[in-house]
Amino acid sequence: MAKGIIYIMNTVVDGLIKIGKTQTKQFDKRMQYLENNGYRNITGLKRKFAIEVSNYDEKEALLHNIFDRSRVPNTELFALNVDLAVQLLSAFEGDQVFPKPNQQSKKEVFEEATERVSSSKIPNGIYYLRRRIKAFNNTIIKAQMEIKDGKYIVLAGSTICPIEDSNITKQIHNRRLTANIENNILKENEEFSSASTAAVFVIGKSDNGRIRWKTTEGIPLAVFMQEPKQEDE
Fold this sequence. Notes:
alpha+beta
């Protein structure tokens, strides 16, 4: 069973992605070439997700077949929601190559992609987080987040817990280091790609943002992300 890497890349064209494969040892070289030279007259390619799997030829063909209706003929380009592709590929058994696992785990990639696939159902507006942190002298953390056209923006004035869990990802750890925070108060807005990463940024430990962020009436985001139930005929 030959092992190789299947990758997903964004392009300069919004909503157009590339799904391809390469040998493991050629991955970095292939990414650099595509990012510098483009593909089929499409430029601005940036790696989004990559995983090393067994039978990579067959698995790439499977992905191409699944998304065939969205495919640009005779290319590896697809008019497709990138998160939908990442959601499927990150569910494959294999070793994540990009992003680096110490920056974002495969589970986190999958959950974030899944969350963004469902995020179109969430109304734009302001949402609130309140959580008591025992390790922070039982302080109640209070934060506000604006959701606007799929963007998750933690607003200035939110409390940021200074204590971090040892398992927090390097990506979030670095965001907390570079953000403008004074006396545990965020001074400038910070934008995130999902509600969960926004929640982790605020409280300093893993959390489910779909449950944690709520409306003024106390309705969690998860309610908006559910599929409506079908009535019995």
